Amino acid sequence: MAEILNTTKAPLAIGPYVQGVNLGGMVMTSGQLPINPQTKQMPEDITEQTLQSLNNALSIIEEAGLNASNIVKTTVFVKDLNDFPLVNTVYGEFFESHNASFPARSCVEVARLPMDAKVEIEVIATK
């Protein structure tokens, strides 16, 4: 049975979905927009948005007792693939700063993201 994950350290779901689910050995997050959960604001800069999205996803898996080292797969959605070098730099620094191995990753350009975000990131983590 899946356990619904819910934390105030990540933005609340803005639709009919949950922040994440804990399947016992695996945790999956919904796509995380770069919304600061305290201020409810989204930074304008793509690098700040990337870091916020990653921190939001991390907060959700931490609710299940996991950390960045447990992340095995990410999917990165970007509004403009020309921003990918900046996203990639922040992404790499995030995992290095948590002493975590880089997970498998997909990155796709999309026409539009909710709330006109520039990036959205979802993760899968294992115990």
TrEMBL record:
GO CC aspect terms: cytosol
MF GO annotations: deaminase activity
EC number: 3.5.4.-
UniProt keywords, alphabetically: Hydrolase
Domain of life: Bacteria
Gene3D superfamilies: RutC-like
Signal peptide per UniProt: none
Enzyme class: hydrolase
Thylakoid found in the keyword field: no
Family: Belongs to the RutC family.
Name this protein carries in UniProt: Enamine/imine deaminase
Source taxonomy: Bacteria, Pseudomonadati, Pseudomonadota, Gammaproteobacteria, Vibrionales
